[in-house]
Amino acid sequence: MAERWMKRRYEALAQPGKIGSLELPHRILMGSMHMGLEHDDDEMMARLCEFYRERALGGAALIITGGACVLPEGGGHMFVLTNPRHVERLSELPKAVHEVGGRIALQLYHAGRYAFSEEIGQQAVAPSPLPSRLTRETPREMTLEDIRRTIEGYANAARTAKDIGFDAIEIMGSEGYLLNQFLSPLTNHRNDEYGGDFERRMRLPLEVVEAVRPAVGPEFPIIFRMSGLDCMPGSTTPEETIQFAQALEKAGVDALNVGIGWHEAAVPTVQQVVPRGGFAGVAAFVRQHVTVPVLAANRLNVPEVANELVADGFLDFIAPARPWLADAEFAKKILEGDRDGLNVCIACNQSCLDHTLVKPYRVVSCLVNPRAGYEALRPRVKAQVKRRVAVVGGGPAGLEAARAAAERGHEVTLFERDTELGGQFRLASRIPGKDEFLETIRYYEVMLERLGVTVTMQTEPSLDQLAEFDDVIVAVGVKPKAPGIPGEDLPHVVSYQDLLMGRVQPGRNIVILGAGGIGCDVAVFLGTRRRMTPDAEAFFEEQGLPVPKPIERTITMLARSDRIGRGIGRSTRWVVRQEMQRLGVNVVPNVAMLEITQDGVRIERDGREELVPADQVVLCTGQLPQETAWTEKLPPHVRVHIVGGARDSRDINAARAIREAWMAAYDIG
User: Fold this and answer.
1) Active-site residue numbers?
2) Could you tell me which residue ranges the FAD/NAD(P)-binding domain spans (predicted)?
3) Cα 522 from Cα 515, distance rounded (Å)
4) Consecutive H or E run containing 66
5) 277 in the Ramachandran plot: left (φ > 0), alpha (ψ -120 to 50) or beta?
6) What is the mean pLDDT of each run of 10 residues along the chain (669 residues)?
7) Which long-range contacts (CB under 8 A, 24 or more apart) does 409-412 make?
8) CA dihedral of 313, 330, 643, 618, whole degrees rounded to 10
9) pTM metric for this prediction
10) What pLDDT, on the 0 to 100 scale, is given for residue 651?
11) Which fold has domain 24-335?
12) Rounded to whole angstroms, how far apart are CA atoms 652 and 46?
């Protein structure tokens, strides 16, 4: 049997488990995330219900919703449990999930100092009146009456959740939100009974649990999402974290969901650079000191890692969120052993977190699964008429176009001029920390084979060939844009593609022209590859050998403005810039590039000309659409759909290209 089709067994994840009185068939939960669909609107509510319904059908043992505010000041653009209309709408979620045999928990939420005043219509509240780096506002210090009202708010919200049909609740006390703010000395400067030493700082979250328990009764499951690691210097200590976990267990929680990091922390927690399961040791540390089940989420995107962590006792359940965006059948495929058919979350954040960090907020979706969030608008049904579809281009957009068209029942042929599929994703996978892109290419290759797509490699189809089809989806992508300055054709000037694919060796004194997403990727690529692999360095250290010094390599990035990393989403840009700084990349902003010479790049900065020395110049100066005028010569019966960068290269990214390809394929027939 071919390796591709071998079923894999994930015995630890398949074991039944319990959270309080709630019997769960296996260990794969769906964690909390806001979808941008939490509105009192019929269409939005239908979409939210269908999103959760499909994840229940996809095998989630328990779904934990995005947060619902316990009080109006708890946060904006989401349901508020003191609003009767919002409660009525929320009641639709358990009905939708229960119809297909699923289980669902409501997360109870209060943002505290992370709430935006313009969204909640009042000043945010917090333990102490300290400015928030996230909102750039200063909250009001909570009075004892505010605290009493908040405790009652949690209790009432929990009672309401139970009354309207939810199977459990999760109390949000992590990621720097209100209850976490009371716990930390960074945000709690009070000197009353709710601040000071740790006993008093943890009083509010404990009193919340103690109020919630009688409100829902002894058998109703309570999960508490606690911070295992704030990633904030001077915040809660590991010893205090364990003390808090044990106090929560004593107060009556049935499980602990261990969160990582604050929104203002300078440590990546969910980006691609974080290793798979990279924070599981934090959950394990908590689990060693309590007897209730422990859940964890961060970067648990593949079953082989998650199964091993559960089997080895690091945690009891996994509760990732974004992997369920990438694949609505995340648990079902894992339990059936269909690792090859799993569409893996690549932690790019482009269509999920980045959509929640802009205003106005955008509906959350997924780069590798553009249907996420749109299930109710794009049901999985076959096209009424089967058509012959050609897809030109085997990059991410072309692969999605072919997959989606074939899934709808069309006869699809994919043409790719290169020797491998993947296009820009295969290039991106060469960047350290971005090898997850290979998972997406692997998924598409498997799905095209299963769906019967004819894949023709190393072929640029002729007009006569394409004339035999009913529809042609053109996804040929982009080509590099030259800077348009003298010297750009000198022999030591190279393209980023040639460098990343290993067709040219890096120089010793390198200048990168362009500071967009590609330029930043190239800088990280060059900076990281100055030294041996981490495994090799670890081997040298274990053997007591001196680790060889990194290759001497100077990397200078020239930028036309001070916007570094344009095109990289807000949730990831700071990580890339931080990594470039760590690697010693010299960024020179606000320059005019005048000429490339044998000795370097002549620039103008602050009204003065200067030469930046270089023995190699890498061009990362933008992109242009590949030529598509040839489509106008196709006969009238052929419908042409140009998508992605081939249609418009301005501000193009993979999320937009894949979404356009999916929509084009879906709208055929």
Assistant:
1) 177
2) 388-628
3) 10
4) strand 63-69
5) left
6) 63 98 98 95 96 98 98 94 97 98 98 96 98 95 98 98 98 98 98 98 98 98 98 97 98 98 93 93 98 96 97 98 98 97 95 86 94 95 95 98 98 97 94 93 98 97 97 96 96 95 95 96 94 91 94 96 89 92 96 96 95 97 95 97 95 93 93
7) 409/382, 409/383, 409/669, 410/383, 410/386, 410/471, 410/665, 410/668, 410/669, 411/386, 411/387, 412/451, 412/452, 412/453, 412/454
8) 10
9) 0.94
10) 85
11) TIM Barrel (3.20.20)
12) 30
Element (H, E) at 411: strand 411-416
Q: How many residues does the chain have?
A: 669
As given in the structure block, the two tokens for residue 335 are: 């339990």
CA distance 12 to 236: 32
Local structure of residue 161 (DSSP, 8 states) = H
Question: What's residue 8's pLDDT?
Answer: 82
| Residue the block writes with tokens 């919200």 | 157
Dihedral through CA 339, CA 341, CA 343, CA 344, nearest 10?
20
DSSP state string for 79-129? -BTT-HHHHHHHTHHHHHHHHTT--EEEEEE--GGGS-HHHHTS--EESS-
Tell me the pLDDT tens digit for each residue of 561-607. 999 998 888 889 999 999 999 999 999 999 999 999 999 999 999 99
Tokens representing residue 539 in the block:
């081997």
**What is the rounded CA–CA span in Å between residue 158 and residue 81?**
9
Distance of CA 427 to the CA centre of its chain: 20
How far apart CA 421 and CA 423 sit, in angstroms, is 6
Pairing between β-strand 471-474 and β-strand 509-513 as defined by DSSP bridges? unpaired
What pLDDT, on a 0 to 100 scale, did the predictor assign at position 433?
85
Give the burial class of 59: count Cβ atoms within 10 A of its Cβ; 0-12 exposed, 13-18 middle, 19 or more buried: buried
Q: How far apart are CA 154 and CA 175, in angstroms?
A: 18
Q: How far apart are CA 416 and CA 395, in angstroms?
A: 8
Q: How many CA atoms lie within 13 A of 55 on its CB side?
A: 32
DSSP summary character for residue 640:
E
Helix or strand run (H / E) with residue 57: helix 42-57
Distances (CA, A) of 537 to 277, 431, 434: 21, 19, 20
C-alpha–C-alpha distance, residues 259 and 330, integer Å: 21
Instruction: Give the type of residue at 554.
Output: T
- Reported as type and span, the H/E element at residue 168 is strand 168-173
- The answer to whether 373 and 37 are in contact (CB under 8 A) is yes
Sign of CA dihedral 589, 592, 596, 602: negative
Does domain 388-479+627-666 fall into CATH 3.40.50.720?
yes
Residue ranges of the alpha helices (H) in 224-328?
238-251, 280-287, 303-311, 322-326
* Equal CATH topology for 24-335 and 482-621: no
Boundaries of every domain in the chain = 24-335, 388-479+627-666, 482-621
Cβ-based neighbours of 628, under 8 Å, separated by 6 or more: 474, 476, 642, 646
Following DSSP, what letter does each residue of 567-621 receive, concatenated? TS-HHHHHHHHHHHHHTT-EEE-S-EEEEEETTEEEEEETTEEEEEE-SEEEE--
Q: Which superfamily is assigned to 482-621 in CATH?
A: FAD/NAD(P)-binding domain (3.50.50.60)
Q: Assess contact for 390 and 459: CB atoms under 8 A.
A: no
Cα torsion 488, 492, 495, 499 to 10°: value is -170
- Please measure the distance between the N-terminal and C-terminal CA atoms of the chain and give it in whole angstroms: 37
Sequential DSSP letters for 497-522: HHHHTTSS---SEEEEE--BHHHHHH
Place of tokens 């109710």: 376
> Which CA distances in Å does 9 have to 292, 328, 337, 557, 629?
26, 20, 5, 47, 50
